[in-house]
Amino acid sequence: MAVVAQLSPSSYTETTRLSSSQLSLSSTHLSSLRRRAFRPIIGPRNPTISCSVNQVQAPVAVEQDDPKSKTNDCYGVFCLTYDLKAEEETKSWKKMVNIAVSGAAGMIANHLLFKLAAGEVLGPDQPIALKLLGSERSLQALEGVAMELEDSLFPLLREVKIGINPYELFEDAEWALLIGAKPRGPGMERAGLLDINGQIFAEQGKALNAVASRNVKVIVVGNPCNTNALICLKNAPSIPAKNFHALTRLDENRAKCQLALKAGVFYDKVSNMTIWGNHSTTQVPDFLNARINGLPVKEIIKDHKWLEEGFTETIQKVRLVDNFTLILFVMNCIVFL
Ligand SMILES: NC(=O)c1ccc[n+]([C@@H]2O[C@H](COP(=O)([O-])OP(=O)(O)OC[C@H]3O[C@@H](n4cnc5c(N)ncnc54)[C@H](O)[C@@H]3O)[C@@H](O)[C@H]2O)c1
Ligand SMILES: O=C(O)C[C@H](O)C(=O)O
């Protein structure tokens, strides 16, 4: 058991003011003593505190859970309660949605989380709860992300939890954005990540199966994403298979760009582009059925050797340097689903 020192009279006054003027209690919202233990005081709501300037002599130790468990709980200001239905500006908002994000301290999630919290993905009347799953190594960075979310005061962001246990973080998740995985290094193929990353998705599939909403929609980003999505769904038999998606859109867009470049037209002139197979070197970008300005590709691009070899290999092997595109795809995917 760890201990924390009880708080000074000045912070007591400040928090009391906050809780009475801006926040109200909701019976449905989590509000445990454990939460209160690691946040500053919750003023009159905490029956153990009777504090005035005269009474306070020295810091008093209060019990707190193991500090490690702190990372599995609400973060910072997100431990405070609220009641959306009680406020004029928020009472017409939709019901809160639970979004679990793995790899939340990583590059991709780092951008995506802020777009989610800003309402750019699910809309300006959709409050969200973010459940951020990291690895043991990334825990400190994860705390930094939560701190930045706190600093940003996003009105729609009502809850943030951080931790490393998918069984806790995926509880009642309605969305699971599974980004956390090792990226490939120089000279590696995506399939080379399977040994390491496959296990992650087996475990997370089991956790989703055990605790997530039965309607959870799962978007797998971590590579090799198709195989990881399959591993995840096989480990989650109580969730409909149609709810699992692998984010492979990059290949289609890359193929459109390559054809556009070769044909000297803007990419909006390329249509009917399909990628068969996985997001890997085994994929087949289907230039036979694609169209440029409505015509078969082979009628516009006469360099058929390039189509058969160079084009296909480029799409199979190209690698993202800037993850921003990917973030836009995840956003679009959520909106589309
Ligand atoms: N599908 C696509 O089109 C696409 C595009 C880009 C990247 N990716 C893949 O997405 C993954 C993440 O990329 P990134 O750039 O964000 O990498 P990153 O290394 O910046 O972040 C990954 C994060 O995941 C965390 N992590 C590792 N194991 C975890 C686990 N078991 N649970 C929770 N978190 C865990 C790491 O600590 C790290 O913080 C990689 O596998 C990468 O190959 C896929
Ligand atoms: O290829 C990678 O390693 C990342 C991503 O899947 C990409 O296609 O750029």
TrEMBL record:
<dbReference type="Pfam" id="PF02866">
    <property type="entry name" value="Ldh_1_C"/>
</dbReference>
<dbReference type="InterPro" id="IPR015955">
    <property type="entry name" value="Lactate_DH/Glyco_Ohase_4_C"/>
</dbReference>
<dbReference type="InterPro" id="IPR001236">
    <property type="entry name" value="Lactate/malate_DH_N"/>
</dbReference>
<dbReference type="GO" id="GO:0006099">
    <property type="term" value="P:tricarboxylic acid cycle"/>
</dbReference>
<dbReference type="GO" id="GO:0006108">
    <property type="term" value="P:malate metabolic process"/>
</dbReference>
<dbReference type="InterPro" id="IPR001252">
    <property type="entry name" value="Malate_DH_AS"/>
</dbReference>
<keyword id="KW-0816">Tricarboxylic acid cycle</keyword>
<dbReference type="InterPro" id="IPR036291">
    <property type="entry name" value="NAD(P)-bd_dom_sf"/>
</dbReference>
<keyword id="KW-0560">Oxidoreductase</keyword>
<dbReference type="GO" id="GO:0030060">
    <property type="term" value="F:L-malate dehydrogenase (NAD+) activity"/>
</dbReference>
<dbReference type="InterPro" id="IPR010945">
    <property type="entry name" value="Malate_DH_type2"/>
</dbReference>
<feature type="domain" description="Lactate/malate dehydrogenase N-terminal">
    <location>
        <begin position="98"/>
        <end position="245"/>
    </location>
</feature>
<keyword id="KW-0520">NAD</keyword>
<protein>
    <recommendedName>
        <fullName>Malate dehydrogenase</fullName>
        <ecNumber>1.1.1.37</ecNumber>
    </recommendedName>
</protein>
<dbReference type="Pfam" id="PF00056">
    <property type="entry name" value="Ldh_1_N"/>
</dbReference>
<comment type="similarity">
    <text>Belongs to the LDH/MDH superfamily. MDH type 2 family.</text>
</comment>
<dbReference type="InterPro" id="IPR022383">
    <property type="entry name" value="Lactate/malate_DH_C"/>
</dbReference>
<feature type="domain" description="Lactate/malate dehydrogenase C-terminal">
    <location>
        <begin position="248"/>
        <end position="317"/>
    </location>
</feature>
